[in-house]
Specification:
Elements lengths: L3 H19 L8 H17 L5 H14 L2 H9 L1
Helix pairs in contact: 1-3
């Protein structure tokens, strides 16, 4: 079974991925995923013009700020 600590670590890594996506960091350790998400963001806009690249990147940026070890631990403790 996965421990709370392992779950927090996993979500923290997801937050780092989201941060790299929002900054379009192609030199990231997650560069494969940054490229995939860049393509998916463009596809999303083609299907629905509300999903602009700027808004999608802002969403990833905001989620990356929430998915940190400190914030997740604090949330779990409450």
């Amino acid at each position: 079974m996965i421990t709370i600590s392992q779950r927090i670590d996993t979500f923290t890594k997801l937050g780092k991925l989201f941060s790299d996506i929002s900054r379009q960091n192609k030199d990231s350790v997650y560069k494969k995923w940054v490229t995939i998400f860049d393509k998916k963001i463009k596809e999303a806009y083609q299907y629905n013009n509300w999903f602009t690249k700027e808004n999608c990147l802002l969403s990833f940026k905001n989620w990356s700020k929430e998915l940190t070890t400190i914030k997740l631990s604090k949330w779990i403790d409450n």
